[in-house]
Amino acid sequence: MNTKGNLFLFPTLLGENHFEEVLPLKTLSFMRSTKYFIVENERTARRFLSAIKSSFPIPELIFWTIDKHDNIGDFSEAFKLMEAGENVGLLSEAGCPAIADPGNNIVATAHQKRIRVVPFTGPSSILLSLMASGFNGQNFQFHGYLPRDKSPLNQKLKSLENESRKNKTAQIFIETPYRNQAILDEILIACQPQSMLCIAVDLTLETEEIISMPIANWKKNTLLFNKRPAIFLLQVL
Q1: N or C: which end of the chain has fewer CB within 10 A?
Q2: Residue 142 pairs with which residues in a beta bridge?
Q3: Dihedral sign, CA of 39, 40, 43, 49?
Q4: Taking the mean position of all CA atoms in its chain, how far away is CA 192?
Q5: What is the rounded CA–CA span in Å between residue 113 and residue 127?
Q6: Which of 29-43, 113-127, 129-143, 219-233 has the lowest mean pLDDT?
Q7: How far apart are CA 1 and CA 178, in angstroms?
Q8: Residue 101 has what pLDDT?
Q9: Residue pair 200/125 in contact by the 8 Å Cβ criterion
């Protein structure tokens, strides 16, 4: 009989909206009943768990902070608790943990230690934008952040476009909100007018906008999305 605890993978909100509009009741129920958390930012995690009304007093919750390096040695105490039968939650800062977020090394170590990994349902900007884009949901690639310097960025965009043309793949990437306009400007320079571009902004929020059209049409568009969370999808149809 397995007496070990579980590693719960908890998604969270993509923006400033009400948690009950986005997160399923099962996800919220397990989050509320969890005392131990691995998080990216303890302050925002405390605020979020307070908002969803954790079953524990907030000062009694225990946190370990993860960074982009996923240094496993820092989480030995958390793994000892799981091996002793306690549940630990890996809580994303936005969206789903370990997807365009740190945490995959935590998950991999849990598997190595034969600790059960339990993913919970919640919003993923990658999947939501792909669903709404009209692009190929059977064959797609996510690239995270592209190069920031203009020349490498131009080359990368052309490479993604060629890959999409060759294999009919949807190419998905993100950028920090304050650089949205800069990357759009470079897309308009690097990519062919007939290639399709979808930009999904403020997903799950009341201000959500998802626009999918040829590059040529984007040159005439006036979408104001600088400093707003956005995800980009490129495909040659």
Answers
A1: N
A2: 172
A3: negative
A4: 28
A5: 30
A6: 219-233
A7: 52
A8: 87
A9: yes
Query: How far is 136 from 35, CA to CA, in rounded Å?
Result: 40
pLDDT at 52: 96
Residue matched to tokens 């939650």: 89
Q: Is the pTM of this model over 0.85?
A: yes
Entry field: residues in the chain: 237
> Which domains are assigned to the chain?
6-119 (3.40.1010.10), 125-235 (3.30.950.10)
Contact 196, 170 (CB under 8 A): no
Q: Name which residue leads in pLDDT, 221 or 56.
A: 56
Identity (one letter) of the amino acid at 48? F
- Read off the DSSP letter of residue 201: E
Report the SS3 class of residue 25: helix
